[in-house]
C-alpha cells in the first residue's frame, strides 16, 4: 500500500511538473498543491515558481524556503534570487550569497554562475575577480553560456587573470555557439580586429549578423559599417543603411549620434530611390523580428 501510494504521488508530481512546463497552471496547481502541503520539496519549488510568476512574491518566498530548508538546490537558487532582487523580502545580497552558495555546492550550474556574479560585482561579498573566475569556470564547464561569455570578457580585459585574447575567443565561441548574442558580437569584434585570432572580415560579418538577427544594436551597427566599407561582404549601401537604421532605432545618447552620423554619410552615397528601398526593407526586417532582412 505504501509503495502504491508513493508511486501515485510520483506520478502526480511528474504530471504536475509537465503541466507547469507547458504553462497549464491550473492543472499543475491542482496536482502539485497537495504534494507541497505534504512537504514534498520539488512540488513546493514548482508551486513557488507559479506564485513568483503571478507576482505573489511573499508566498513564493515561503514555499522556496520550505523546500530550500530541505536542501533542494533549485529552491535554494530561487530563494537566493528573491533576496538578490528584493522580491517578497528586503533586498539582502549577503542572504542571496548564502543561498546561492548552498545550491552551488550541490553543483547547480546557474547557482555557480550567480555566485560568480556576486563576486564579480561585489554584492554581498568583497569584490574578488579571482573568486568570480573560479565559480564562472565551474558553471562554464557545465555549458552555462552566460558563464562562458563572462569568462571570455574577463580574459579579454585581464580581470582576475592575465589578459589573453586567445582564451577569450575560446570562451566567446562556446557561448556564441549556444546563441548568446553578446558572445557572438564580441567574437565578431575579435575577428574584425584580429585579437586572439587571425583578422577575418568574413568571419566578423558572420558573427555580427547572428547577433544582429537577435536585435542586438551594436552588432547591427557594425554589420551596417561592414556593408558600407565592403569588408567581408560586397559593398552595399542599401544593406548598410538598413542595419544602421535598425541600430539607430534602439540606441540612445552618444551611441545613437554615432550611428546617425554613419547613416547620414551612407545616405550621401545613395539615390532617393535606394534610401526609400532601404527604409522599407528595414521596416519589414523589424516587423519580422529580424528574420526577413534580405
Task: Describe what is shown at a glance.
73% of the residues lie in helices and 0% in strands.
Can you offer a commentary on this structure?
The protein has 294 residues and is mainly alpha-helical. The chain is built from 16 helices and no strands. The chain has helices at 2-21, 25-37, 41-53, 57-68, 73-85, 93-104, 109-121, 129-140, 145-157, 165-176, 181-193, 201-212, 217-229, 237-250, 253-267, 272-287. The relative contact order is 0.05. The model has no long low-confidence stretch (mean pLDDT 95).
Number of strands: 0
Number of separate helices: 16
Q: Report the sheet with the most strands, covering strand number, pairing sense and barrel closure.
A: none
Q: Termini distance?
A: 65 Å
Q: What is the average per-residue confidence, as pLDDT, rounded to a whole number?
A: 95
Helical amount:
over 70%
Strand composition percent: under 5%
Keywords:
294 residues, mainly alpha, 16 helices
Walk me through the topology.
Elements: H1 2-21, H2 25-37, H3 41-53, H4 57-68, H5 73-85, H6 93-104, H7 109-121, H8 129-140, H9 145-157, H10 165-176, H11 181-193, H12 201-212, H13 217-229, H14 237-250, H15 253-267, H16 272-287
Amino acid at each position: 500500500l505504501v509503495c502504491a501510494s508513493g508511486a501515485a504521488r510520483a506520478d502526480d508530481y511528474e504530471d504536475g511538473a509537465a503541466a507547469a512546463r507547458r504553462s497549464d497552471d491550473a492543472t499543475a496547481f491542482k496536482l502539485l498543491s497537495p504534494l507541497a502541503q505534504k512537504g514534498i520539496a520539488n512540488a513546493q519549488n514548482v508551486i513557488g515558481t507559479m506564485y513568483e510568476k503571478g507576482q505573489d512574491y511573499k508566498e513564493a518566498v515561503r514555499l522556496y524556503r520550505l523546500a530550500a530548508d530541505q536542501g533542494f538546490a533549485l529552491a535554494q537558487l530561487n530563494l537566493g534570487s528573491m533576496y538578490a532582487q528584493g522580491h517578497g523580502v528586503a533586498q539582502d545580497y549577503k542572504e542571496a550569497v548564502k543561498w546561492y552558495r548552498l545550491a552551488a555546492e550541490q553543483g547547480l550550474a546557474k547557482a555557480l554562475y550567480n555566485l560568480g556574479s556576486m563576486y564579480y560585482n561585489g554584492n554581498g561579498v568583497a569584490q574578488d575577480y579571482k573568486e568570480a573566475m573560479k565559480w564562472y569556470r565551474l558553471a562554464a564547464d557545465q555549458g552555462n553560456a552566460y558563464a562562458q561569455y563572462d569568462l571570455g570578457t574577463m580574459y579579454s580585459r585581464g580581470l582576475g587573470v592575465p589578459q589573453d585574447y586567445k582564451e577569450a575567443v575560446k570562451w566567446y565561441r562556446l557561448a556564441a555557439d549556444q546563441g548568446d548574442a553578446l558572445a557572438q558580437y564580441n567574437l565578431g569584434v575579435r575577428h574584425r580586429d584580429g585579437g586572439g585570432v587571425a583578422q577575418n572580415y568574413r568571419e566578423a560579418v558572420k558573427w555580427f549578423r547572428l547577433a544582429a538577427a537577435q536585435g542586438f544594436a551594436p552588432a547591427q551597427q557594425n554589420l551596417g559599417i561592414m556593408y558600407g566599407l565592403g569588408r567581408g561582404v560586397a559593398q552595399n549601401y542599401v544593406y548598410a543603411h538598413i542595419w544602421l537604421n535598425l541600430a539607430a532605432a534602439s540606441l540612445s545618447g552618444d551611441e545613437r549620434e554615432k550611428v546617425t552620423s554613419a547613416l547620414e554619410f551612407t545616405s550621401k552615397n545613395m539615390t532617393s530611390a535606394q534610401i526609400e528601398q532601404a527604409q522599407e526593407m528595414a521596416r519589414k526586417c523589424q516587423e519580422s523580428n529580424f528574420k526577413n532582412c534580405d
